[in-house]
Specification:
This protein is α/β, with parallel strands linked by helices. It contains 13 helices and eleven strands. Helices cover 40% and strands 12% of the residues. The strands form five sheets. Strands 3-4-7 form a three-stranded antiparallel sheet. A two-stranded parallel sheet has the order 1-2. The protein is elongated. The model has no long low-confidence stretch (mean pLDDT 90).
């Protein structure tokens, strides 16, 4: 079902505020779609009911609006490939399970958590994190399987990984990437409670939404191998995949940028009054470049779109540079016409109590004169 027209998606979970890394993923997808005349889809992966937060969902919508990353399809926009909330797509997952049953691509696994923990302990002599499921239930006689199913014994559905074998896909950024099936266990696709696992749901959603290119963080690379195997089991065409670098915390911190470092959430920059166009330029240049010095002259959004090439994204993780953001944002602000700048700073002046509630156009004109 892959579309002839390029279709990309940004699929956050509403469990926390919009992170800079997630925002950059959304930006790269948006730039890619705009560069190629494609479609930018927003899908909300909200199946984790216990962790979902209403305010986090609102922050995703508001953050994308502030960044100017307008979805062509999504929960607010609608579209022909909805619903755009994963929690509303349950019937499509059940149908995919039936398809895999008919093709003998999956099998029921009756192993309890206790058995799996015991086997891991025995194999690793203290709990080997690298231990993979041993395929115990894959070899059960058909009669025994039927008897246990009829008795109502709880089970999960596991994917039959072809053995021996290997899976290769050509990453848009990193090139050919291969994993040996000896390093991949038979994946659980459906939990004992009937809910689909992340990798299973994502494959079905992307296929039914006709997604042509999956662009996401490098931390999803291990998921991609699993998803390719699921696509192949279902007999579906695999979309192109590209994995962008992670954003590292600024010095003196080390490791991936996280909330504990500060400056990890988009809302912080919005509240501080950063110019969104300058912020988008800075965000785009973390791990990507097209040979122009963004600190010396403002780069228009149209110029970013015209020059965006995912193949030019860096392979190495990129370090966040707040001082560069200040320089770029400041340059964008100084280049604004006074009237435009006055309108942009008006909400902040009101929030600070520097403008009376009934201040109108005359007040804006005065602000424009002052700036």
């Amino acid at each position: 079902m892959i579309s002839e027209r390029i279709r990309v998606r940004f699929a956050p979970s509403p469990t926390g505020y919009l992170h800079i890394g997630s925002a950059r993923t959304a930006l790269f997808n948006w730039l890619f779609a705009r560069r190629h005349g494609g479609v930018f889809v927003l899908r909300i992966e909200d199946t984790d009911e216990q962790r979902n937060k209403t305010e986090a969902l609102a922050a995703i919508f508001e953050g994308l609006r502030w960044l100017g990353l307008d979805p062509d399809e999504g929960p607010e926009q609608g579209g022909a490939y909805g619903p755009y909330f994963q929690s509303e797509r349950g019937p499509t997952y059940a149908e995919a399970v039936k398809q895999l049953e008919r093709s003998d691509g999956i099998y029921p696994c009756f192993c309890t958590k206790e058995r799996l923990a015991q086997r891991r302990e025995q194999r690793g002599g203290g709990g080997d994190a690298s231990w993979h499921y041993d395929g115990h239930c894959r070899a059960l006689p058909a009669a025994e399987v039927a008897e246990r199913l009829a008795a109502g014994e709880p089970y999960t559905w596991r994917l039959k990984i072809p053995r021996p074998g290997a899976t290769t896909f050509n990453d848009l950024i990193h090139g050919p990437t291969t994993v040996d099936h000896a390093d991949v266990e038979d994946l659980i696709l459906v939990r004992a409670d009937g809910t689909p696992t992340y990798n299973f749901a994502v494959v079905i959603d992307d296929h039914l939404m006709a997604i042509t290119h999956v662009i996401r963080g490098q931390d999803h690379l291990t998921n991609s191998f699993k998803q390719v195997l699921i696509y192949e089991a279902l007999g579906w065409e695999v979309p192109a995949m590209g994995h962008i670098s992670l954003i590292l915390a600024p010095p003196p911190h080390t490791g991936k940028l996280s909330k504990r470092h500060g400056g990890a959430e988009i809302k912080e920059y919005q509240d501080k009054g950063y110019d969104p166009d300058g912020f988008v330029t800075w965000l785009a240049m973390i791990g990507w470049s097209f040979g122009k010095d963004e600190e010396k002259e403002p780069i228009a959004r149209e110029e970013l779109i015209a020059n965006f090439d995912i193949a030019n994204a860096g392979k190495a993780n990129a370090r966040m540079n707040p001082s560069k953001l200040n320089a770029i944002s400041g340059r964008h602000i100084r280049a604004m016409p006074p009237a435009e700048l006055a309108r942009k700073i008006e909400p902040y002046l009101r929030a600070a109590g520097c403008l009376p509630p009934d201040a109108g156009e005359a007040a804006l004109a005065l602000i424009a004169e002052c700036v």
